[in-house]
Every structure is written in structure tokens, then in C-alpha cells.
Design brief:
By secondary structure, the protein is mainly alpha-helical. It has a domain of 34 residues. Helices cover 42% and strands 0% of the residues. It contains two helices and no strands.
Length: 59
């Protein structure tokens, strides 16, 4: 796995929050947000839930 600066930021969030806060990752489209969060979840936790809002609901 490629260790990038965002991964290090996520590790810092994990240390600082100690499991007391949720994480919201925002940013431009198609820059790897889902990928880095999924890698982080698999690498740092036994279980992980990733909620993605990929499609707007039809009205």
C-alpha cells in the first residue's frame, strides 16, 4: 500500500480522537478519497463501515 500524506493525517485523527469522533472526508471529485479511507479502515481497524453518497436520490 502506498503511504501518502492523507493516510498520515488519518492516523493523526485516530490518535487524537481516541474513537470519540466521527470522520467526514470532503474534497474534489476523483482524487482518491474513498480509496484512502477504505485502505485506512482495512489497515487500522478490525471492522469498518464506509458510507458513500455516490448518487443523488431520484425525486
Amino acid at each position: 500500500m502506498l503511504q501518502r500524506k492523507p493516510y498520515e493525517n488519518l492516523l493523526e485523527w485516530k490518535r487524537a480522537s481516541a474513537g470519540r469522533t466521527a470522520l467526514l472526508v470532503k474534497g474534489a471529485r476523483r482524487v482518491g478519497k474513498s480509496t484512502i479511507v477504505s485502505e485506512f479502515g482495512r489497515g487500522e481497524y478490525r471492522t469498518c463501515i464506509v458510507v458513500g453518497f455516490f448518487e443523488a436520490p431520484r425525486s
